[in-house]
Design a protein that fits this description.
Number of strands: 15
Strand order of the largest sheet: 7-6-5-11-12
Oligomer: single chain
Distance between the termini: 36 Å
Radius of gyration: 30 Å
Number of helices: 21
Largest sheet: 5 strands, parallel
Mean pLDDT: 90
Structural class: alpha/beta
Shape: globular
Length: 590
RNA sequence: GCGCCCAUAGCUCAACUGGAUAGAGCAUCGCCCUUCUAAGGCGAGGGUUUCAGGUUCGAAUCCUGAUGGGCGUGCCA
């Protein structure tokens, strides 16, 4: 319907140009909106107000001209009535039968209803979560997971060719700290007396992995504690202590005493256990990836070196203080960035440059990174690197997610992976369920700060609006089932043919609401805003509940009955489609 | 200090990206189950959109400044 109005208005603008009211060369953007208030009709345009400057006439006079042109048209499509209102809005009232046409569309397209081709098949790589595999996911990661997964689904429906990827940071110091932590716990299990480093990973999961290590390898990896700790810099809290130096020395000792092969054994057990746990956790959260991309593979395949070489050749690398620096300031970054440290080790940034370059080389048109907003300062340097390597920095879209601030009993919770004090995603899922958690996270705009009250989420889970939507879906199932039980099963063909029997306000309201679904998808997709879907679904569910209370669906008169059941079937389909984008189930029963 | 993000009902958030009387949920108060699921519906109260200017037919939305909060500002990842 909206498209129809746009077409008509395009004709009108041409007509006004012909009449000399508007300059011939003027380009006009025609804007048709859904009205908020029923008194303003179904659709409205601000065209007259937009043109007032171009035409040099007051908006209301222009509006009258526009309306008279529309009224002179032979074919006015589904327009029932046109009105001028307020400062110069033109309101369109549409014919009812045109409003119900969408019901048939929904029921024939089913799961495909709402799909559009905004993406034109362009390939997009959505990278999200990508949490370091040094511990279980916590509720902070949950938001990125829920958001990223929903954005990916949304883009898919909007006609993009989507791949989802998790970047596994399986190289670097944090992983060494993890492996060393596991090994030290293992030594303790073997009976060695030692003080655990203040900077090591202290969570319970470390004990579990070290127990596993002991089960698999007995005491073959055991070394005397005094040997491990001799020559190691003191830990924080002791005289001349330095926690960073302390842990680095321990890592060196672990590598040294164990030897490359055995160190690798500990390292991979830790990595694989945690990664396996993360995968399982995300699957339980209805979040899946096409690809798990290893940072180590990037290093080992020489992609990082190749990328640095490329920058070097472009003259964007220089040496200072024994380290290699990338001239990111040339592309607007605040300062140049180190890519190779004076100890010869490549920085995380170096592999990230390579990673993004690699993504484009794999042929993706658009790269989407979902990051925690604490990494926002990182964007300019990555874009700088892309520019320096002659790739289009516009291809990269970084979506920032504010981390949720957790509250329990009205108090803010501090969270840190290192200290092992955090609420895990798994815990949250088990308490409130995957559906409620997914919805809760995605209800808010991603860049909006979010307060996550655990008590509320857990204890009052029934108040989570996801149930409201699911309830609408289940209710419809039940009604259709009841009708069938009474021998009055929905006859779709008959129902479609009887849609003109629907004349209640709630019924046209629902139809109008259904028609808004495709445009909601399109708008949400280009803005990367899945919360719009959440709000849409709440509205639609409200429409359904309201309708449910307003009248009986299973009535004797077969035309009315079939028409009503047809309408609610369409509503059910759209609820299901929308929930699928959010990764939430659509239950038949509740 | 500098940079980025944010500020809307008592609380948590929307507002079709500049449109008409700023809307929902929770909380509070009334009403509705002999009717297809009450995890529901109907209604009431609640606002100087942090503040001060500016841009224009029109501002919660854009610009400037102030105030308050979050984050960043490593040869960490």
């Amino acid at each position: 319907m909206k498209q129809q109005i746009v077409q008509i208005l395009t004709q009108v603008v041409q007509q006004l140009k012909n009449e000399g009211v508007l300059p011939e060369e003027a380009s006009v953007r025609i804007n048709v909106e859904n009205t908020r208030d029923k008194a303003h009709g179904d659709l409205a345009t601000n065209l007259a107000m937009m043109l007032t400057k171009l035409a040099g006439q007051p908006p209301r006079t222009l509006a009258e001209k526009i309306v008279s042109v529309i009224e002179s048209l032979a074919d006015r499509g589904a327009i029932e009535k046109v009105e001028i209102a307020g400062p110069g809005f033109i309101n369109f009232f549409m014919k009812d039968d045109a409003k119900f046409a969408v019901v048939e569309q929904v029921l024939t397209q089913q799961a495909d209803f709402g799909r559009c081709n905004a993406g034109q098949g362009r390939s997009v790589l959505v990278e999200f979560v990508s949490a370091n595999p040094t511990g279980p996911l916590h509720v902070g990661h949950g938001r990125g997971a829920a958001y990223g997964a929903s954005v990916a689904n949304l883009l898919e429906v909007a006609g993009f060719d989507v791949s989802r990827e998790y970047y596994v940071n399986d190289a670097g110091r944090q992983m060494d700290i993890l492996a060393t932590s596991v090994w030290l716990r293992y030594l303790q299990l073997c009976g060695e007396e030692l003080t655990f480093p203040s900077n090591g990973y202290k969570g319970d999961y470390i004990f579990e992995i070290s127990e596993e290590l002991r089960r698999e390898h007995g005491e073959t990896l055991r070394k005397p504690a005094f040997e491990v700790f001799t020559g190691v810099c003191a830990d924080e809290g002791q005289t001349d202590g330095d926690k960073e130096k302390h842990i680095d020395d321990l890592i060196a000792k672990a590598k040294n005493l164990l030897g490359a092969h055995h160190y690798e054994t500990v390292f991979s057990l830790a990595l694989n256990t945690i990664l396996g746990d993360i995968k399982e956790d995300l699957e339980g959260f209805n979040v899946t990836f096409e690809n798990w991309f290893s940072e180590r593979s990037l290093m080992e395949s020489g992609v990082v070196d190749a990328a640095l070489e490329k920058l070097q050749q472009a003259g964007k690398i220089y040496e200072k203080g024994g380290a290699l620096w990338f001239r990111s300031t040339e592309y607007g970054d605040e300062k140049d960035r180190v890519v190779v440290r004076d100890n010869g080790l490549k920085t995380y940034f170096a592999s990230d440059i390579a990673y993004h370059f690699n993504k484009l080389e794999r042929g993706f048109d658009i790269l989407i990174d979902v990051w925690g907003s604490d990494h926002h300062g990182y964007i300019p340097r990555v874009k700088a690197a892309m520019q320096a390597m002659d790739t289009n920095p516009e291809a990269l879209q970084v979506l920032l997610v504010q981390f949720a601030v957790l509250y329990r009993g009205g108090e803010k919770l501090a969270m840190s992976t290192r200290s092992g004090q955090f609420v895990t995603l798994r815990e949250l899922r088990e308490e409130v369920g995957s559906d409620a958690a997914r919805f809760f996270y995605v209800q808010r705009k991603s860049e909006q700060h979010m307060d996550f009250d655990l008590d509320l989420a857990k204890s009052q889970s029934n108040e989570n609006p996801v149930y409201y939507i699911q309830y609408a879906h289940a209710r419809i199932s039940r009604v259709l089932e009841q009708a069938a039980e009474k021998g009055l099963a929905l006859d779709l063909e008959k129902g479609m043919a009887s849609l003109e029997k629907l004349e209640l306000e709630a019924e046209t309201g629902l139809a109008v609401q259904l028609a808004k679904y495709p445009e909601t998808i399109a708008r949400a997709a280009v803005a990367y805003e899945p919360h719009q879907i959440a709000y849409y679904l709440k509205d639609l569910a409200h429409g359904l509940h309201s309708y449910y209370n307003a009248c009986q669906f299973i009535v004797d008169e077969s035309e009315v009955r079939n028409a009503r059941l047809t309408l609610i079937s369409a509503v059910q389909q759209v609820l299901k489609n929308g929930l699928a984008i959010l990764g939430v189930s659509a239950p038949e029963k509740m």
